[in-house]
Fold each of these.
Amino acid sequence: MRILAFVAGVACLFIVLLDAFQTIILPRRATGRIRLTRMFYIATWKPWAFFARRLRNPRKRETVFSFYGPLSLILLLVVWAGAMVVGFGLIYFALGSPFIDTAHQSGFYSDLYVSGTTIFTLGIGDVTPQNPWARALVILEAGTGLGFLAVVMGYFPVLYSAFSRREVSISLLDARAGSPPTAAELLRRHSYPGGEMALSVLLTEWERWSAELLESHISYPQLCYFRSQHSNQSWLAALTAILDMSALMVAGIQGYEARQAQLTFAMARHAMVDLSQILSQRPLTDVPDRLPAERYEKLYELLSEGGVKVCRDGQSIERLREMRVLYEGYAEALSRYLHMPLPPWLADHPFRDNWLTVAKVRAKTDAANPPSSDPRAATGNIPGAISTHVDHHDF
């Protein structure tokens, strides 16, 4: 019995310390299907999501979902600490409970009490060790608890720093792609003169964002459960919108630099696939078609009205469907698991955002200050003349 208790205690400590090391310190994907952190999230996320989905108010439902990410970190630390207390308690029990208890309550209960007060460095002193082995273990446990606390204190700033970097780009996407972000709106708002260069710069930024998302969320998968500030935004919706837009540019848009779109698509898809694997979500095949033929025709009309040149060679929709197969199954699997809705290709009822108000004001400015018909005035070559030419910008 004592030998089994000792083996169980050592195994418990080894599992906890290894799991904490892989979760907090190790800057790469944690391996092993039987991990305490993985089992914790499997056991807690589905019940939490089950009760959250029962709320009818969308705002309250999203608020409840947003609590899970930060709260899960606190609960995970409680699980780690509790497992360490039990592990050291089992070792003390295996050594024959070598303590003098002033309350005369020797046994496993006293061992757990000593373990708890030691690992949290309380130092009450009502239970004292009797032999050198017990004293050494008490010192070891106190040092372990102190080191564990120090590591945990450095854990939260790293997580929230990665979360903040992720959310900044998502918030910036609001003025460029609408809320929720859509590929059609993103292209339409970059159809002004010079918009090709701005869109290429944007794609470069989102290629880097996808790489940062991949690296941070593989090291800290807990961040996948963290929700954005607004209910109509999420990292999954933003990543899917960028993939939609990149796929559309590669498969059926003329006049734009497609090289950067290919690079961004490759990086964003890499992030989508790897994060699906991290959360043990296989791609779905029975997913609803996000862009049927009639919606594609409407997308074509909307982009054409905005000045975007769409390929109409009869094969563009097939090329786009071939691109979509590469990522939509993974996106749908993550959407159902995390309960984050995917954005549409084009919004029938777009969310009213600040861009609409700004665009209307800018349109009034352009109407009140038409460009001069004299080309010299437009280029500023008339001495003393002030150029009234203003390039049209959507924001």
Amino acid sequence: MSYSSGAAQNQTAKFVLPINDRTTLTLFGSHNYTRYYQSDAGPGETWQQVLLYGKNFALNNNPTDEHYKGFNHQKKQTDFEYIDLKGDIGYGITYEDQAYTYFYSNKTISVNDVTGIVGGANTSKVKNKTQAGLFPNDIGGYDKGNRYRVYGDILRINKDWSFGTLKTGAVWEGSSTDRHNLYLDLTTGANDNAFKTGVLNAKTLEYSSWDQYQIFADFEWRPLENLTIQPGVKYINFKRTIDGIEENSGTSGFVKHTSAIGSNTYDKTLYFATANYRVKPYWSFYAQYATGFLIPALSFLQTANPSLNQLQPEQTTNYQLGSVFSRGHVTLDADVYKIHVTNLQIETADHQNWKNAGTADYSGAEAQGAYAFDFGLTLFANGSLNTAKDVTDNTTEVDAPKWTDAVGALYKQGPWQGSLTYKQVGDQVSDGGPLLKAYDTTDATVAYDFGHFKVKLAGFNLFDKRSITTFSGSKLNSTTDTGLYTFQVGRQVQVTLEAKF
């Protein structure tokens, strides 16, 4: 994409210490850093921009325009660490305890809007009171930050008998998050200091946290040599707390704010069961059942009184039936599934809270097969047919492909490796409403292993397809609709060199 360069680096270290023949201690740490140029108001372009500038347009180097790369950039940093103690104390009892922590930081500068044309009237206007009054035609934007630290511990204790295995455990996890979103005048580089001027330019100043614990157990029962039955249960208790100032509503030139202080607790006992029956050593059937729930997002607490929000988590009931066959050169499997969702979450009419309303059903069938030749070549094919319906109004859920399929070949013989794959994503309803047609891609790789060194050449989207993948507007291919399009990434070539010591 134009003027959308980026840079990234990562470091990883892992240390495994065998304490004795029954106990192992593992230490792990990783760090990642990324900086890139992209507007937080996108990504994507309007159809008018596509016609004027092509599908690769994103940013430019013009400091008088809202698409200026200096006004649209993001910097992200993460780390992840854990200490794992694993052991066998005899009598069929094993244990594992893993303490962990991870961190995320996002620092973003962005304009408010990217739908304007280059050289035309700037569509990003200054919104905060002080700067809007002085420079109403300046390019407006925001400084967005999000940082959180999560820490927790997972304990697992298993007991094995000849007829089955009992698996038990518990999870505890906490987090601490601070977020802000401050309006800026990007033309002058000025902004109101939210902490000194009564948060006049603050869209969000927020601290939040969660505390959760889970207790779980399942039993893998083997009543017959060719039959396995595994029931399980899990209890989850999740408390989310918020303490912040949120933009509520406003009049011209002045933004009102409201305090959002409160907490909600969500808890649920979940169940699952799976059974596997082997008709032959190479052929089996399985059935699965599970319940689940989706804890409401933090945004549902960003209201005047979060504690009055009685929103319940979305709940699911999941079913799947399938069969797996693997004998000689042939591997086949197929399944059917259904997911029933209740408590779909929607905003109330006064826009002050959220409520539960409606149900949805996701269902489909999937199958895949492969044939492996003796000389290192494997041919494969897979596909799925899917439906995603909002039962309440009989509409199709957005961003849910009606089908997927793929065919390809994999090769590995001696030092040579290679692959050729064709993949297709079926028609789907866009977020804005129109139907997006299916799109496909063809990829290939070839690699040679020299021993201590390995070189790999990969090509993605070899035929340079640029189909629409997402759309946020209401009318496709319209120069008056300001919905944003994203397209398939064009042809890419990547060379990788690995060194082993």
Amino acid sequence: MVGFDGDGHIVLRRRVKRDRLLAQTANMPACLIGMEACSGAHHLARALQAQGHMPRLMPPQYVKPFVKANKNDYRDAEANAEAVGRPTMRFVPVKTEAQLDLQTIHRIRQRLVGRRTALINQLRAILLERGITVAQRRRVLERELPGILAEDRNGLSPRIRLLIEDMRTEWHELDRRIEALDAELVAMARTNDACRRLCEIPGIGALNATALVAAVSNGAAFSKGRDMAAWLGLTPREYSTGGKQRLLGISKRGNTYLRTLLIHGARAALPHLAMRQDGLGNWLRKLLERVHRNVAVVALANKLARIAWAVLNGSQPYRAQAAA
């Protein structure tokens, strides 16, 4: 712990064990406390708020420039104390327990989906080594697998057949667990007012809506929709100098999971939206005439992120004419 007075002079330098930290801060007068947004930071911030303090969470990459000379624990704490007092510092909103619960469901689902993808890739590799190829897409392999196992003259040994059957059972179990989490997220989206309003936006379903609410709550951390789109990494990366502006591809910063969901949602909604006879449809058709389809998908995801911020921040339902 490193403490500054009103003039920025160090008045406190102390090493505190983890289990004694809250007892130490309980005996201190209410003050501004800066911490890096890392694992456990939201729980600690809520505990400090209950004690009357003003905790502020900061992205670690914004704190690092304040670390002087060689890195050690005291200089890390001093860097946090200096960074939290900067008027231009960007802070991470403290998540509620409900937000963390919702975020945890998404993270567990993401891990299960990754396990299923790895299992399917391994299964395809095993079959390919025996000269058996199956067309792309998960559903195609799932449909063809029973016929492959029933065929006696495809070169699969009895042991490999048993292994493939075991992998197939594991695949079905992963499907069941993912579907159960999907059903839970859909049920939560139906009971949450913010999620219901988000689901009215084309390209945003229960999965995207619950992930957005878990990550940004009401979007108050951003002053405008472009700021949230930039936080999601959906805006161009800039490398300008000497008065010459140079815009590159999207920055891909921030929440990768949310950006992926928004892009998948935009890809699914693009054909329908491009046929609409309104401002949004006209904009998409003109965009598709001059850029690649994938570029148009990312541009639509950017627009969906801005619309989502407006719906969350303004407590207003989605209106197609206003979006156009």
